[in-house]
Sequence to fold (179 residues):
Amino acid sequence: MVELIITVTLIAMIITASVSLYIFGTKTFDEGENKAKIQRNVRNTADYLTENIRNCTQFGVTLNTLPPPDAVTYQRGFEVNGNKFTAFNTSSASIQFDVDMISDITFYVYNLSGSAITHLTVKGSSGNQTYEMNREVLLNNLRTAYFDNKITSGDPTGIALGQSNTYSLKDYCLYYGNK
Fold:
């Protein structure tokens, strides 16, 4: 009788340990998979932004509350709404690219020997997990004088140069075009 009680107790302890290990493993796998999704979405968004703005000939921002600028000059736009990044066509408002788990995108443009460099920070999150990617993008067809001229002329889509002038796509829409 004592042997039976000891055997049942040992089996119960082994089953409890096995179930606990299984639950821990499943939870760890799900967290890893979620982190991988966030990283993939952040990387894809950063790649998409880089590919689309690198060779643009027009570049500007407006507050999200303002109507979009001239669709002939600025053919495409980007915004972050909620936890989603959206790229859209300004003339038809059709969505071109749509990614979840993007909590914010910030950028600033700075001068490097007359060349305009955009510093992008793409932030992704889901639950308590976050991931951030920084990227520098040379705007091949725009010099810093382009940005200075827009500011001095009072253009509402003008972007002030420098890290102290960081824009968040939660508050602004970024527009670009190729005239």
